[in-house]
Amino acid sequence: MRPPVSRHRPSNEGPPGPRPRVYSPDLTPPWKRKPQPVPEVAAEPGLVVEEAGTGFCGAVIRCEAGTVTLEDRFGKHRVFPLEPRGFLLEGKAVTLVRPAASPARPTRTASGSIAVPQARARVARAGRIYVEGRHDAELVEKVWGDDLRIEGVVVEYLEGVDDLPAIVDSFAPGPDARLGVLVDHLVPGTKEWRIAQSVTSDHALVVGHPYIDIWQAVKPSSLGIEAWPAVPKGQDWKTGVCRALGWPAENTGAVWQAILKRVGSYRDLEPELLGRVEELIDFVTGSGGA
After folding, report:
1. Phi and psi of 248, rounded to 5°?
2. What residue stretches are annotated with the DUF3097 domain (predicted)?
3. Any alpha helices (H) in 153-251, and if so which ranges?
4. 261 has which bridge partners?
5. DSSP secondary structure letters along 15-45
6. Residue 117's pLDDT is what?
7. Mean pLDDT per 10-residue section of the chain, whose length is 290 residues
8. Are residues 90 and 35 in contact, defined by beta-carbon separation less than 8 angstroms?
């Protein structure tokens, strides 16, 4: 016979002990714990989310101040407030926010003309506009560059007016190739004035402003100065200006670049220059231009 099976544990086996408890390293009571931050997601059109409170699931079709409109797969629309942790994206809580607004396109060019978005530059005309120096060309490009590209007008510089007669002869302006020239300090009786008179014709227009240098065509208020200082005759004007204003006189090129950065539009320039440049553009692109 088999011995009876004992239902008692052997004397060397004690009763089972209590299970060990596992504690979380964070002993902060749940009611004191700060809610975990949830990511912010831009409510872009087409984004599919679920409203946490109602379970309504749909795609964003519109996001306005404080609300978002969802459309479900049956075409039903519902409007919900943009509340923190108010939506689920792929099962995870998120806060929907309004998408960043696209920067508004300027409606005017720096010259004040009506802007033409995405306009292609026109093939360059045969006509040209010449200015005295590099600084003049850079200023004209800064303010009128968009207009000139649309009109197909190229601006070049002379490095002074002494060679202007030879340049005009070589250019040979005509009905289909007009030439406009902008000259500094064009005052009757000056050397510049006499040269301008000698080359002016029906197809070549020379205009000028009264300033000694193109720097003076920038309004002093745009540069934070009261006025352009007077420089004694016989002294280099740019060097004298820099010394009088405490600017580095040994590097007038760097000073000019700093001045140019302060020019944002035609509002920073004197009217005497604005009118002359507009006159040249009209002349070169007029009915007799290419």
Report:
1. -65, 105
2. 40-99, 128-285
3. 164-171, 191-199, 220-223, 237-245
4. none
5. PPPPPPP---S--S-GGGSPPPP--EEE--T
6. 62
7. 50 56 55 71 92 92 88 88 90 90 65 62 78 93 90 86 90 92 88 90 93 95 95 93 94 94 94 94 72
8. no
Q: Are 115 and 109 in contact (CB under 8 A)?
A: yes
> What is the C-alpha to C-alpha distance for residues 115 and 105, in angstroms, rounded to an integer?
9
Closest CA to 231 of 217, 215, 250, 244: 244
**What does the longest C-alpha to C-alpha distance in the chain come to?**
145
Q: Reduced to 3 states, what is the DSSP secondary structure of residue 39?
A: coil
pLDDT for residue 288: 42
Strand partners, 67: 64, 81
Integer Cα distance of 70 and 132 in angstroms: 62
Other beta carbons less than 10 A from residue 227's beta carbon: 8
Q: Are 204 and 181 in contact (CB under 8 A)?
A: yes
Whether residue 131 contacts residue 104, with contact meaning beta carbons closer than 8 Å, is answered with no
Assess contact for 237 and 212: CB atoms under 8 A. yes
Using CA atoms, how far apart are residues 18 and 23, in angstroms rounded to an integer? 15
Residue carrying the six token digits 């912010």: 40
